[in-house]
């Protein structure tokens, strides 16, 4: 299985990059992992709905352009479906059994994901009702993907 994290913006902090490197290293035996970043759109005033929509649309276009053909797209969105770690592992296992060889997780920028991206996704996954910074969300997702492989292989890690 080839897993791609498609993200708006960069991590920007050394400690987050170290965490990302660590999980990429841990995931090496389990999957081909690729992390793709698209440029975030600068903005000043988020009180204007038009500004927010314009930022989301531009970032959304960049994300949609980078989606590989035939990929199964899972959007990270706090309004999406909440799963336990076991259910998340089962979902990845099921996608593998269905022959979905390329999974793309999409993480939005500071203002979220555009309607176009959310509609394009096969599923929307929530990691809780809390809003996380997109940089932290990337690390949380990497850890849960790693946990999912450990669960699916029956290897010690998850309790
Ligand atoms: C700062 S959040 C965006 C906040 C935006 N106001 C919203 O409600 O979507 C940045 C990105 O991180 C991801 N994210 C943040 N919290 C999340 C959560 N609880 N579950 C799933 N994804 C989350 C989403 O992809 C989101 O687009």
TrEMBL record:
MF annotations from Gene Ontology: rRNA (pseudouridine-N3-)-methyltransferase activity
Catalysis performed (reactions): pseudouridine(1915) in 23S rRNA + S-adenosyl-L-methionine = N(3)-methylpseudouridine(1915) in 23S rRNA + S-adenosyl-L-homocysteine + H(+)
Subunit and partners: Homodimer.
Residues that span the membrane, as ranges: none
Keyword Transmembrane helix on entry: no
Broad class of the protein's primary localization: cytoplasm
Keywords per UniProt: Cytoplasm, Methyltransferase, rRNA processing, S-adenosyl-L-methionine, Transferase
Domain of life: Bacteria
InterPro entries: Alpha/beta_knot_MTases, RlmH-like, tRNA_m1G_MTases_N
Function text: Specifically methylates the pseudouridine at position 1915 (m3Psi1915) in 23S rRNA.
Protein name as catalogued: Ribosomal RNA large subunit methyltransferase H
Subcellular localization: Cytoplasm
Gene3D superfamilies: 3.40.1280.10
Database matches in Pfam families: SPOUT_MTase (PF02590)
Gene (name only): rlmH
Family under the similarity heading: Belongs to the RNA methyltransferase RlmH family.
EC primary class: transferase
EC number of this enzyme: 2.1.1.177
GO cellular component: cytoplasm
Residues that coordinate or bind S-adenosyl-L-methionine: 76, 108, 127-132
């Amino acid at each position: 299985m080839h897993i791609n994290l498609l993200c708006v913006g960069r991590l920007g902090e050394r400690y987050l990059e170290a965490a990302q490197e660590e999980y990429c290293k841990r995931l090496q035996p389990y999957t081909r992992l690729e992390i793709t970043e698209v440029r975030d759109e600068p903005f000043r005033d988020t009180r204007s709905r038009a500004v927010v929509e314009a930022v989301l649309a531009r970032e959304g276009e960049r994300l949609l352009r980078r989606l590989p053909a035939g990929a199964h797209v899972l959007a990270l969105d706090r309004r999406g479906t909440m799963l336990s770690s076991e259910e998340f592992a089962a979902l990845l296992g099921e996608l593998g059994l269905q022959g979905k060889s390329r999974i793309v997780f999409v993480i939005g920028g500071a203002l979220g994901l555009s309607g176009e991206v959310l509609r394009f996704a096969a599923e929307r996954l929530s990691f809780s009702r809390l809003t996380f910074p997109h940089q932290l969300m990337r690390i949380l997702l990497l850890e849960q993907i790693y946990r999912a492989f450990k669960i699916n292989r029956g290897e010690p890690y998850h309790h």
